Amino acid sequence: MFTGIVEEVGEIVDVRQSGEVVVLTVRGPRVSGDAAHGDSIAVNGCCLTVADPDGAGPVQGDTFRLELVPETLKRTSLSGAAAGGRVNLERALQAGGRFGGHIVQGHVDGVGTLLERTPGERSDEVRFGLPADLARYVVEKGSITVDGVSLTVAATDGDSFTVALIPTTLADTTLGLRRPGDPVNLEVDVLAKYVEKLTAGYLGGTRKDGAQ
Fold this sequence. Notes:
Layout: E1 8-18, E2 21-27, H1 29-32, E3 40-43, E4 46-49, E5 59-60, E6 63-68, H2 70-75, E7 86-91, E8 110-119, E9 124-129, E10 143-146, E11 149-156, E12 160-165, H3 167-172, E13 183-188, H4 190-199
Antiparallel strand pairs: 1-2, 1-7, 2-6, 3-4, 3-7, 5-6, 8-9, 8-13, 9-12, 10-11, 10-13, 11-12
């Protein structure tokens, strides 16, 4: 589990195809410091496993390797990963650690698009488009994860939502670099999805699993 508090912005240094799997090598001095084979690291909000595909060691210096399977490539913006790209990195939350953001699973629900950016004196207002099937989970003053960053929804408008990015977020995450048209990974609040499923039968709706 994660909290959406980015620890550092890393750099993709290598992208290699290995059969149906894509192997990423990412430079991140802070998160690689104690990384080991099998550990979970969120990369732009996608929970990935530190891997050792070639037996050479999963961590070498300040870099670590990850494997992207077809499901990950299909459902996240990491399908467009390229050497030189910048990514938000967060290690899994340790028991007893500070819970600074909100409950983030690292399970990307869909890919959105940055639609509009309105710079302020020190902060920015940014509007994102989101897939239609996710809109019902996004509410004003609720939580959402954008490229692994825990954010508060400032406003919603059907198929889009707006967030206000403080100077720290602009400086310490990739959201300060994103421009209109850029894709972003979205994870809605998992609590909203559970509430929907558990109450659907009582409200006369049909759950996704077909139950009434």
